[in-house]
Automatic annotation (TrEMBL), chain A:
<feature type="transmembrane region" description="Helical">
    <location>
        <begin position="54"/>
        <end position="72"/>
    </location>
</feature>
<feature type="transmembrane region" description="Helical">
    <location>
        <begin position="343"/>
        <end position="361"/>
    </location>
</feature>
<keyword id="KW-1278">Translocase</keyword>
<dbReference type="Pfam" id="PF00361">
    <property type="entry name" value="Proton_antipo_M"/>
</dbReference>
<comment type="function">
    <text>Core subunit of the mitochondrial membrane respiratory chain NADH dehydrogenase (Complex I) that is believed to belong to the minimal assembly required for catalysis. Complex I functions in the transfer of electrons from NADH to the respiratory chain. The immediate electron acceptor for the enzyme is believed to be ubiquinone.</text>
</comment>
<feature type="transmembrane region" description="Helical">
    <location>
        <begin position="107"/>
        <end position="129"/>
    </location>
</feature>
<dbReference type="GO" id="GO:0042773">
    <property type="term" value="P:ATP synthesis coupled electron transport"/>
</dbReference>
<keyword id="KW-0812">Transmembrane</keyword>
<keyword id="KW-0813">Transport</keyword>
UniProtKB/TrEMBL annotation, chain B:
<keyword id="KW-0520">NAD</keyword>
<dbReference type="GO" id="GO:0003954">
    <property type="term" value="F:NADH dehydrogenase activity"/>
</dbReference>
<comment type="function">
    <text>Core subunit of the mitochondrial membrane respiratory chain NADH dehydrogenase (Complex I) which catalyzes electron transfer from NADH through the respiratory chain, using ubiquinone as an electron acceptor. Essential for the catalytic activity and assembly of complex I.</text>
</comment>
<dbReference type="Pfam" id="PF06455">
    <property type="entry name" value="NADH5_C"/>
</dbReference>
<dbReference type="GO" id="GO:0015990">
    <property type="term" value="P:electron transport coupled proton transport"/>
</dbReference>
<keyword id="KW-0496">Mitochondrion</keyword>
<keyword id="KW-0679">Respiratory chain</keyword>
<feature type="transmembrane region" description="Helical">
    <location>
        <begin position="487"/>
        <end position="508"/>
    </location>
</feature>
<feature type="transmembrane region" description="Helical">
    <location>
        <begin position="150"/>
        <end position="170"/>
    </location>
</feature>
Length: 446, 574
């Protein structure tokens, strides 16, 4: 794995040339694609790093999204808004993400997990466009830090107990007594806030709304998935405690998902709507994970990848509208089909992805998640059905309001889309719809 | 450059011909092909994309392609001059493709490709015209269909206990699953939303906001029959289940409700939509009695003449300056004789006039239904709905074709548009011969019908009564009183589809949108903030204010706090 990290470090001196970084990122992505072999559970093992199929697909996602982030943030270059620093921050973020997904030591994982917050914060504070970004940054930082400092204590106690923090060598915390349960909650809560679960999700819409397109894309595309990734890594340590407490997470996230979906129907801010819809989707991921079934964990991974591509694409679209219209409000940027007819197709395709229409990865993942959660308890059918129904409702609401009907009369004309923009959207959409043909590429195979 | 409507017509027509030939081959040899593509396999359950190619799917595909080729050709003139014509064509082609995927997939997961595709593409087609009415209709359509998608998703999760989703293998012995009843209920629910049965009927007339060629293809012959088709494939599993009984009652009610509603409707397209709804009720009800083959037969025959009827309606609307209100028409048979003939043909076929397409399927369905042990309610609904069908058809004939001339003083009505009349002629052939041909092909040995003369004549009697009533009641002149005002309440109730459009739009969205608002203000901007970011912030600020007082270097406070702690310590120690 070191070769990719070194490649990242070597990109840092190149930040003065936007194009060099851009093309190198794409080339690195394609090189990484060549390593898609699942013959062994762990490969590319080195000092503290190795990857398995789960780490691999998430690293690939990080590379992919980062390349697309650079591609879609050309406004930074055009307006000369510190483009080299911007690239540097992005490369740092990518570096930390690779480290997180390939670390085979819980402490190293923890450190890189936390370090990814810093470049994200800098992205929001540095390239966001409204004064409220300060508050949003603080929200993001403190919500996640508040939950993850206890995780450090838990990891150190694990070290104390088993004498090692290497993945797979740590002893399981047996029993479901009071201490085990507290330990369990403390450990998983950091990831649950990162996902985020309903009730601790407040940082997410704020961060998304204030972040520049790069921040939104990487946040929705990869950073939320850190939570799911962490859960997959730590949950097996707490088998019994998880069995006793999983009902809590499933209930909160499913009912919360419905509530969040209802709130989505009342959003007029495009980015807030997409952010809230992420909360609903991640709720399903969380319930699939804590149910502890093979279908659940695989569905969660597939939804993580699918949602990463799809919502990142939607944020891209929202930004393209913002760059032209200057507003994220659905009341102003409406009827856009009249201005950008070809873009409306991309809106439609990515919206279809967001509501888990076939043949997207989201559908495959959601089916697996629904299977596992319904097999766990039939009562959950109620909220799953509402969740699934409203996911279509708010996505269609967003699509129809932004694309159809009369346009805002203060608008006169705008560019209907550049090749670069269509390329970005295509590169979001293509893997989302093609990978399903061989679903096992995006699965967690031991 | 060849126009898109021509090339798609040729392409689809050749596809249709080959499908029909293959269907005949399969029918003769009894062959069927299964093709599977494994998407993924997990814990020995495989998610596969399954294609089934047997006579049934080939024949349905052939019909769909034939009708869509005619419709696309027809759109060449109907949509002429529309600035987004190519978008329209691509959407219709995408729709045909989704329908194809639906027809050839007997797998609960891979059928979603067609099923969701139909829902989404038909949404894009309904909102094709950019106005509020289309947007609302589209939302109603898409969300009603989404209920069915969700039902299929849940059914998939229950089907999991079979270890595979190729339902064709499992429908024969469904009781092996613990929750088979629930599963069947969900599948029936899904079919009911797609086929617009009560209580999901509101979307079908609303979807008439789409361009008329779309209505001809989508909302008469293909999309709405997807539910029926799913249940035809699924029907062995429904035998003797509660869901079958419920489906029988609801579909008979739909049939009656739609027939009644069509008698009070003045929008030409909505009348035809309601008649589609009524025929869907017929298909669903005979399906729930266990005669899946009859339902399939009627599905195909109905597709032919209903598409024709919609095309004629489109031609009429196109000529009368895009008015859809039948009170603005009248005497059209003198101005557009060819269209009038086709329209009449389609109408007669719909009523089940002997030896036209509808006769073979509808009459057989009625006789089989009367012969089977159904309860009185279903029987009465059947008889009434049959009469009502003829009733609204005659009313339509009076208002549009034969009645007085009601047009404005500037008009240009003609039959000259060859691009519109040619496909109508093509479908007319189907409406005349389709029924008989299908009957000979699908039922090599005829159904055994045995009933008393009264029952045998019943369909004819109610049809004649309905026809006479429908024509006479609507004859009007300026000096007549408007009798419907006397029964205002019941007229409004029957004419508005039993308030279903109101209930499924305002009634359904009011509470959800309201609670969304409440959660937003009470939850995310209320308690979640209070116990989250803002609450902690203000707590820390106020606490640090208190602490700051201690840092003011006031000797008295230091002494006081020292004393307090001593007291506390004393209590704790002692």
């Amino acid at each position: 794995m070191l070769k990719f990290m070194l490649a990242c470090i070597m990109l840092m001196p190149l930040v003065n040339s936007w194009w060099a970084v851009q093309s190198s990122l794409f080339i690195l992505t394609f090189i990484l694609m060549l390593y898609c072999h699942h013959d062994f559970s762990n490969y590319m093992a080195g000092w503290c790093f190795n990857i398995d199929s789960l780490g691999y697909i998430l690293i690939l996602l990080s590379f992919w999204i980062t390349a697309l982030v650079v591609c879609s943030s050309q406004k930074v270059l055009k307006e000369n808004n510190y483009p080299s620093l911007f690239l540097l921050v992005n490369i740092f973020l990518l570096f930390f993400l690779i480290m997180t997904f390939s670390a085979n030591d819980y402490l190293l994982f923890y450190i890189s997990f936390e370090s990814s917050l810093i470049p994200t914060l800098i992205l929001i504070l540095g390239w966001g466009y409204q004064p409220e970004r300060l508050q949003a940054g603080v929200y993001m930082l403190f919500y996640t830090l508040f939950a993850s400092l206890p995780l450090l204590v838990s990891l150190i106690s694990l070290y104390n107990m088993s004498g090692s923090l290497t993945l797979g060598l740590v002893e399981n915390v047996s029993g479901a007594g009071f201490i085990s349960c507290i330990w369990y909650v403390v450990t998983v809560f950091a990831f649950i806030v990162k996902l985020p679960m309903f009730l601790v999700h407040l940082w997410l819409p704020k961060a998304h709304v204030e972040a520049p397109v790069a921040g939104s894309m990487i946040l929705a595309g990869v950073l939320l998935k850190l939570g799911g990734y962490g859960l997959i890594r730590v949950l097996p340590l707490f088998g019994e405690a998880n069995k006793n407490l999983s009902w809590l997470w499933v209930s909160i996230s499913l009912v919360g998902g419905v509530v969040v979906s209802l709130m989505c129907l009342r959003q007029v801010d495009m980015k807030a709507l997409i952010a809230y819809s992420s909360v609903a989707h991640m709720g399903l991921v969380l319930s699939g994970l804590v149910v502890f079934g093979w279908w659940g964990v695989n569905g969660a991974v597939v939804v993580m990848i699918g949602h990463g591509l799809c919502s990142s694409g939607l944020f891209c679209l929202a930004n393209m509208v913002y760059e032209r219209i200057g507003s994220r409000s659905l009341l102003i940027s409406k009827g856009l089909m009249n201005f950008m007819p070809s873009m409306a197709l991309w809106w439609f395709l990515l919206s279809a992805g967001n509501m888990a229409a076939p043949p997207t990865l989201n559908l495959l993942g959601e089916i697996s998640l629904i299977i596992s959660v319904v097999s766990w308890s039939k009562v959950s059918m109620l909220s799953i059905s509402l969740l699934s129904f409203f996911s279509a409702a708010y996505t269609l609401y967003m699509f129809s309001l932004s694309q159809h009907g009369k346009y805002y009369s203060a608008l006169f004309s705008c560019c209907s889309g550049k090749v670069r923009e269509y390329l970005i959207l295509m590169l979001h959409w293509l893997p989302l719809n093609v990978l399903i043909l061989k679903g096992s590429t995006v699965m967690f195979i031991l | 450059m060849v126009s898109m409507y021509l090339s798609s017509m040729l392409f689809l027509l050749s596809g249709s011909l080959s499908c029909l030939v293959l269907s005949l081959l399969c029918l003769k040899s009894g062959q069927a092909w299964f093709i599977e593509w494994e998407l993924l396999s997990l814990n020995s359950s495989s998610i596969v994309m399954t294609l089934i190619l047997d006579w049934m799917s080939f024949m349905f595909l052939g019909f769909v392609m034939f009708i869509s080729s005619m419709v696309l050709y027809y759109s060449g003139e109907y949509m002429h001059g529309d600035s987004n014509m190519n978008r329209f064509m691509y959407l219709v082609l995408a729709f045909v493709m989704s329908m194809g995927f639906l027809i050839i997939s007997p797998n609960l997961i891979s059928i979603l490709l067609g099923w969701d595709g139909l829902g989404l593409v038909s949404y894009a087609l309904v909102i094709y015209y950019q106005n509020e009415k289309s947007a609302n209709a589209g939302m109603l359509t898409a969300l009603s269909n989404r209920v069915g998608d969700v039902a299929i998703l849940l059914a998939i999760s229950l089907f999991f206990s079979c270890g595979g989703w190729n339902f064709l293998f499992y429908v024969e012995n469904m009781p092996i699953i613990g929750s088979g009843g629930l599963l069947c209920g969900l599948v029936v629910l899904a079919a009911m939303t797609k086929s617009a049965q009560i209580p999901f009927s509101a979307w079908l007339p609303a979807a008439m906001a789409a361009p008329t060629p779309v209505s001809a293809l989508v909302h008469s012959s293909t999309l709405v029959t997807a539910g029926v088709y799913l249940l035809i494939r699924f029907s062995p599993a429904l035998e003797g289940r509660l869901s079958q009984t419920v489906l029988l009652l609801l579909s008979s009610l739909t049939m009656f409700m739609a027939g009644l509603g069509a008698n009070f409707e003045y929008d030409l397209k909505k009348i035809i939509a309601l008649s589609t709804l009524s025929q869907l009720g017929v298909m669903m009800s005979i399906l729930s009695l266990g005669y899946a083959d009859l339902a399939f037969f009627h599905l195909l025959a109905h597709a032919l003449f209903k598409a024709l009827l919609f095309m004629c309606a489109g031609a009429v609307i196109h000529s009368v300056k895009d008015y859809q209100d039948i009170r603005m028409m009248g005497g059209l048979v003198y101005h557009m004789p060819l269209t009038g003939m086709c329209m009449n043909l389609a109408n007669l076929a719909l009523c089940g006039t002997p030896f036209l397409a509808g006769f073979y399927s509808k009459d057989m369905i009625l006789e089989v239904a009367f012969m089977s042990p159904i309860n009185l309610v279903s029987f009465l609904l059947y008889a009434l709905a049959t009469g009502l069908t003829v009733c609204y058809t005659m009313r339509l004939v009076y208002y549009s074709l034969s009645g007085d001339f009601n047009l404005g003083n500037l008009y240009s009505i003609s039959d000259e548009g060859k691009i519109m009349t040619n496909p109508m002629m093509g479908l007319s052939v189907g409406a005349v011969f389709g029924g008989a041909t299908l009957a000979w092909l699908i039922f090599p040995c005829p159904y055994m019908i045995c009933m008393s003369p009264v029952f045998k004549m019943l369909a004819l009697i109610v049809s004649v009564i309905g026809g006479v009533l429908g024509y006479l009641l609507n004859l009007n002149a300026v000096n007549y009183n408007l009798n419907s005002l006397k029964y205002y309440n019941s007229v409004v109730f029957s004419g508005s589809m039993w308030f279903m459009p109101f209930l499924s739009t305002y009634g359904a969205s009011k509470n959800f949108l309201g609670s969304g608002e409440t959660y937003q203000s009470v939850g995310d901007m209320g308690w979640s903030e209070y116990y989250g970011g803002q609450g902690i912030y203000s707590f820390i600020m106020s606490s640090s204010k208190i602490l700051q007082v201690f840092q003011d270097n006031s000797m008295k406070i230091y002494m006081l706090s020292f004393l307090l702690w001593v007291i506390v310590l004393v209590f704790v120690v002692v």
